[in-house]
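DM between two lab members

TW: hey, do you still have the Ribosomal-protein-alanine N-acetyltransferase entry open?
JB: yeah, one sec
JB: this one, 158 aa:
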Amino acid sequence: MTGKDLSFHVCGVETASLLAELHGLGFEHTPERAWSIEEFNTLLAMPGVFGLVAMLGDDPAGFLLVRQVVDEAEILTITVRPDYRRQGLAGRLLGQLKAMLRDGGKTEKLFLEVREDNKAARALYTRQGFEKIGLRENYYSGQNGGALDAILMACTLS
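TW: and the structure you got?
JB:
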């Protein structure tokens, strides 16, 4: 990484401002896709929703947001600050989440969706054991008024 100690912290609604800031940095090239503090407040107030923040020393470097229901969990979003990308941090976040969910003993499957044109994320998820299970056609707004499909992926945690 960068020589700084890496740690992970589960968080809730008290971190909505931080998560919104990190999300905005993560979507710097498409700011219209970044979620607001209010959206994070609403999500984090829901039962079963929590964040997992990756800290490099004292620096919040990235996070993911998860919704856990009965024996399934869904990654709602994941982002890494631009200055910490391409260092394996997203993979470490996913690995930490999967370990937490496995250790909790209740969650059997982990789901996510990804834009069809996000090749880097799709490759990461495949390396992390996710497989394509479906497609949501025209789910995301594309550039110039077009639409992009969402690829649904899942991995088994047992």
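TW: got it. The radius of gyration is 15 Å. The chain is about 30% helix and 40% strand.
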